[in-house]
Amino acid sequence: MAENRTGTSLFSPFKMGKFSLSHRVVLAPMTRCRALNGIPGDALAEYYTQRSTPGGFLITEGTLISPSAPGFPHVPGIYSDAQVEAWKKVVDAVHAKGSVLFCQLWHVGRASDQVYQPGGVPPISSTNKPISNRWRILMPDGTYGIYPAPRALKTSEILEVVEHYRQASLNAIRAGFDGVEIHGAHGYLIDQFLKNGINDRVDEYGGSIENRCRFMMQVIQAVVSAVGADRVAFRMSPAIDHLDATDSDPLNLGLSVIERINKLQLQVGSKLTYLHVTQPRYTASGQTESRRAGIEEEEAQMIRAWRRAYQGTFMCSGGFTRELGIQAVAEGDADLVSYGRHFISNPDLVWRLKLNAPLNKYIRKTFYTQDPVVGYTDYPVLSKADGGQAPLARL
Ligand SMILES: Cc1cc2nc3c(=O)[nH]c(=O)nc-3n(C[C@H](O)[C@H](O)[C@H](O)COP(=O)(O)O)c2cc1C
């Protein structure tokens, strides 16, 4: 197993702020559309506990901060009392298995449709420009549609959305979550402000990098002041063009975000729990999710530049295999690695990676379906004969 001179490996413990993790394999946040009518139920409790390990770290699927936040069917929310109550059962079940659980706070912005919006109004964004028809939206009936034109938020409306993030973070803590991850990646609302390929505003939220980072910083500051920096994380993907989220200078955008978070950390005298960065290498084949050929070395350099610049815990995601995860941690490119698709199909992924056991293949067509079991909680774990289900304390 690849280890560096200090013996650090994907399977060695890590102190993430106030949390003592027993390994560095993280469950990446993944929308799974199983929270019927926005309420997390028993299926979610089962799904997350299956993926829990003592001292493990899990991040929930994107969780809605307000009624205008959805753009997928049956995504859980964290804005109503009923949702908070329902999450408590999921959180308690995960805690009983010894894992730390963060709630990912999500607003999709223009990646929505009137059908998901209260009153059937157009979705909100930084811009009036729709997502191009290169992309499709999953509709409640399982068909795919074209994204509609959004409505650019008025300057005077923006602080109200910031307030929704703040309130959602308080709700998450009330539900028992250990912290929150603010979703600033993948072309959703915060990314729609950050990227100059989308943001065409002429007010103080558009134009310069300072202005494009303003909404993000207001959200982070509000959430940090509500629940404390040590319970807040931020996810960004400056180099990912998902949903047309392009920027003319992703390296500099990432560095600018990091510079501002570093400064905030100094001001409040506490670090965020971690910074989560999605690699452009979203598939393991050297292509971005949108199939644009990646320039691997250039991309690796960019991630390293962000890693060096950020003064805190650094988590990477995107196309990690066992070998790439081991290498990233051993070479110091990441403190933690989040796994997405392999974790969907391997509830005991941590154990399988540790043993170098074969992985179940994920079934893409059930990623976003609603069956509470099929494609969700029915992937098999290793049998005892394969070395599975050994005492997890040995991890
Ligand atoms: C079905 C599915 C749903 C996803 N939903 C989210 C989400 O809600 N929030 C988020 O930040 N990323 C989401 N992602 C991205 C994952 O967190 C992860 O970064 C991505 O799958 C790349 O990692 P992988 O190559 O290990 O799968 C999703 C990915 C998949 C496959």
TrEMBL record:
What does the entry list under GO cellular component?
peroxisome
SUPFAM superfamilies associated with the record:
FMN-linked oxidoreductases
Record keywords? Flavoprotein, FMN, NADP, Oxidoreductase
| Tagged with keyword Transcription | no
Q: Which molecular function term from Gene Ontology is one that the record holds?
A: FMN binding
Q: Which residues form the NADH:flavin oxidoreductase/NADH oxidase N-terminal domain?
A: 9-359
Which cofactor is recorded for it? Answer: FMN
One Gene Ontology biological process: oxylipin biosynthetic process
Instruction: State the source organism's domain of life.
Output: Eukaryota
- Family, per entry: Belongs to the NADH:flavin oxidoreductase/NADH oxidase family.
Q: What is this protein called?
A: NADH:flavin oxidoreductase/NADH oxidase N-terminal domain-containing protein
